[in-house]
Amino acid sequence: MSNSVDAVATKSALRKKFLHYLFPSVIAMWVYSIYTMVDGMFVGRVVGPIALAAVNIAMPYVNFVFASSMFFSTGASTIISISLGKNNNKDANEIFTLNLVAMIVFSLTISILSYINIDKLALFLGATENTLPFVISYLKIIIVFNTFFIVSYCLEVLTKTDGYPYLAIIGVVLSAITNIVLDYLFVIKLNRGVEGAAVATGISQVISTIFFFSHFCRKVSKLKLTKFKFKFNTIKRIILIGFPDAITELTSGVVILLFNQSILKYIGENGIVSYSVICYVSTLVLMTMIGITQGMQPLSSFYFGKEDNTSIKQLLKMSFKAITFASILIFTISIIFANEIVNIFISKENLELFSYSVKSFRIYSFSFLILGYNILISGFSSSIEKPIYATIISLSRGLILVSIVLLVMINMFGGSGIWFTTIISEGLCLVISFFVIKKSLIYINSNEPDDSLEIDCS
């Protein structure tokens, strides 16, 4: 009887700890989504539909920058959490410092390369004669702030790893408020258009970076900057673990690029405007699912380091329940309030474009019921240092399946088939995810190396 009571108490404590990480993670990801959504709202309603389409065309590059941060943040968070679970604070601090230095060097490199080739970059992203000036104007500003985008997000994730998830909320909310106020100032008051929106977003990232970096300079932080030796194996380990989450974000940009090009060919520029609205909402949904996953990941890695398999499986079960609840709620809201959601970005006065956008958005919304499970299973695999499992899911859902399905749907149904692509590709990927979670649970139960899918990161 005593063992049963202890088990219930342990599960209750674990649930509280999970919720303690879950809500800050989801809220933080919502706020990150709001950055781009606010830009879209101001640009779409104040500057016009062509400018809104231009920001969407530039979005794959923003996804690339965000994915670059995930390369470092997810991998470093996982390894640091495992080290803390083993009470090895010295290794945790060395990994923290090495990761920060490597991240800054990487971000500066891609900023220089991007700025030198900005015209080619804009054309590669799909800028048309009408949108090219807007795309270049937006990218020029974003590129200047690349380092702050990458460092800010990584430090926010590591703040949660350090045991301060609610401090992460304060940081991202502070950044979001800065972005909204500056968007109003630059876009509306100063009439700076897409440039103003980009400057507002960039400055908000500077504020966020300063806030989070100051936390790690405080005595209360377990993670500190320290002397370190450059270890290629550690960087390799960080990147391999972060690769699946980075691919999830990066392929979001690739999908936007593929969809933009297909829509331009088979529907036209009005279709790009409709897809812009879908992208903004889809990003919010994606970030919600990533937030739930990130609420689970540090704890899963911590208990993996402690070899507490019971807690790991309980965390996974709680995460599945959270994903199910979020998926049903988001889908219901999207269907019922489709008109109101689209009206945030497109005026009802443009009746034909508005009606088409609402119809397309409702079709696309069915994918919201599925994508969360694929993201969760991929993230769980990363948290137990099974990056190849997670990579299989990320590449399948984000690149391989969606590309194949998009081609098939266009050939079968023309432009209208584009809007059904995501729900079909996510459904096919879910089959793969079920096989992956089965393999992951076998690994957890046996706690022995699995030669068939194991990568040696040591």
UniProtKB/TrEMBL annotation:
List membrane-spanning regions: 18-35, 65-84, 96-116, 136-155, 167-186, 198-217, 238-260, 272-292, 322-346, 361-381, 388-410, 416-437
Key words of the record:
Antibiotic resistance, Cell membrane, Membrane, Transmembrane, Transmembrane helix, Transport
Where in the cell is the protein located?
Cell membrane
Does this entry carry the keyword Membrane? Answer: yes
Cite the CDD domains for this sequence. MATE_MepA_like
Q: Main site of residence?
A: membrane
What are the GO cellular component annotations? plasma membrane
Pfam families the UniProt entry points to: MatE
According to Swiss-Prot or TrEMBL, what is its membrane topology?
Answer: Multi-pass membrane protein
* GO molecular function list: antiporter activity; xenobiotic transmembrane transporter activity
Name a biological process GO annotation. response to antibiotic
Cell membrane among keywords: yes
Q: What InterPro entries does its record include?
A: MATE_fam, MATE_MepA-like, MATE_MepA_subfamily, MdtK-like
Q: Give the family, as the similarity comment puts it.
A: Belongs to the multi antimicrobial extrusion (MATE) (TC 2.A.66.1) family. MepA subfamily.
Q: What is this protein called?
A: Multidrug export protein MepA
Which organism does this record belong to? Clostridium senegalense
